[in-house]
Amino acid sequence: MNIKFFTTTFLSLLLFISTSFAQPKYIFYLIGDGMGLNHVNLAEIYSAELQGRIGYQPLAFSQFPYVGFASTNSASSSITDSGAGGTALAVGKKTHNGVIGMDSAATVPQRSIAYAAKEAGLKVGITTSVSIDHATPAAFYAHQPKRSYAYEIASEIPTSGFDFFAGSGFVSPITTFDKKSVEDIHTLLATKGYTIVRGKHALRNDNHAGKKIVWLNNESQDKDALKYAIDQTAEDMSLEDITKGAIKALSHNNTKGFFLMVEGGKIDWASHANDCATTVKEVLDFNKTVQAAFDFYKKHPNETLIVVTADHETGGLSLGNGPSSLNLKALAHQKVSQGALSTLIGNIRKSQPNATWDEVKNLIAENTGLWTNLKVSEADEKEIKAAYEKSFVNHQNETSKSLYANDDKIASLSVRILNKIANVGWSSTNHTAAYVPVYAIGVGAEVFNQKMDNTDIPKKIAEAAKFNFN
Q: What are the E-state strand segments in 291-379?
């Protein structure tokens, strides 16, 4: 008998048996809202160009060993909204656009994988860079006929019994969908046993260890969303802060494990605005969150599963707008988001209603690199100047509306010209039917290596974790 062959075969069999029956103790479900494959490519090529080379600088998750892609249609449309998309990723079933955690008739509640994890004894965290009552996080804990029922969604947090929630805040804390005044959601949560903490440093110590936490932005800051990564300062709460805080809180005195959903919500918002520089910074910011999860995985490689995906693609992002070249490094000259640039232009309009073209032009140049670092064609300058004259000379301010913003026309034109210089394009200011990527690593990750539907993703996680699900 060949002893070496026998030993190798026996060890392989033991490995097969051990991996076949292993199940993850720690599960990370990371969702880049609006993040299509081209968004990932954008970030990788941009990072490589900043290093002075042609090619790709891989993100943490694009190096995961198992890669697939998923279809995203809803039950009512080939193009999903975030309600139906989030519900598919949460409950493993299709529903109509706009519905949260319910069937297509919006009459039967559907149980999400987060509930399955909780019933299996794991602690559960639901986190996002936007409001906690927004569509994607809502799909994991709430059951409402319309995603716009913000108060009703938030009021289901205590019913869920989940251990950790985090995000910017609540968009409708004292008003129901039908405009009735009700108990402040913060008071309701406190009376139901949740500790509300605020700001970047809220979980720096262990004062809240073992408690059920709702972690929000400071009261003086936006409750709709965290600041875009491109606009953040060192003192602003980031998605990476939230993810690390969630890991710390959910790990504390916990021998059974946890399920953590993290949504990078503002990839979608920036893509709706067709703001490419802000979009790439959001993808890179989301990558920091994945890296935090991956760092945890490296400490617990035999007990952790990480799955990274998206609910849909937003914007129809194209890498190339005609020429056979890209100039993504041009995006690095943009210093603020289109929304923040709109605010700066609005501030000049208020303080200097008759500001000269050169004054407005200098503000644009300072924040986008146009003219100072990047050549602007005569036709493009003429278009921006026409918008300036209509706004500052004729005092007829124009705006450019997208789903989550109503930006100054001068700002949106400036960003559009920068996109053109970078040789990127957008086919839409809304969602598309494009496939979304799926990346996985860890225990059970091998099942994420093919084409699948978005409803398959939570089912595969549940299968790996041996949850009682659907």
A: 304-309, 313-314, 317-319
- Residues 224-233 have pLDDT tens digits of 999 999 999 9
Runs of H (alpha helix) within 355-446:
357-368, 378-388, 409-422
CA 408 vs CA 61, 191, 339, 342, 399: distances in Å: 35, 42, 8, 5, 4
User: Is residue 470 exposed (0-12), middle (13-18) or buried (19+ Cβ within 10 Å)?
Assistant: middle
Judged against a pLDDT cut of 70, whether residue 131 lies above it is answered with yes
The DSSP code for 448 is -
The Cα 252–Cα 254 span in angstroms is 5
Neighbours of 352 (CB within 10 A): 12
What's the one-letter identity of residue 111?
R
Please give the angle made by the CA atoms of 193, 195 and 201, to the nearest 5 degrees.
165
The position carrying tokens 């639901």 is 126
Distance CA 22, CA 39 (A): 33
pTM of the model: 0.94
**Could you report the per-residue pLDDT of 172-192, keeping only the tens digit for each?**
999 999 999 999 999 999 999
Q: What is the pLDDT of residues 406-433, one digit of tens each?
A: 889 999 999 999 999 999 999 999 999 9
Task: Report the SS3 class of residue 337.
Answer: coil
**Residues forming a β-bridge with 442:** 305
Which of these, 255, 250, 159, lies nearest to 208 by C-alpha position?
Answer: 250
Report the alpha-carbon angle 185-176-131, nearest 5: 55
- Chain CA centroid to CA 304, Å: 21
Using CA atoms, how far apart are residues 231 and 263, in angstroms rounded to an integer? 19
Query: Rounded to whole angstroms, how far apart are CA atoms 71 and 79?
Result: 10
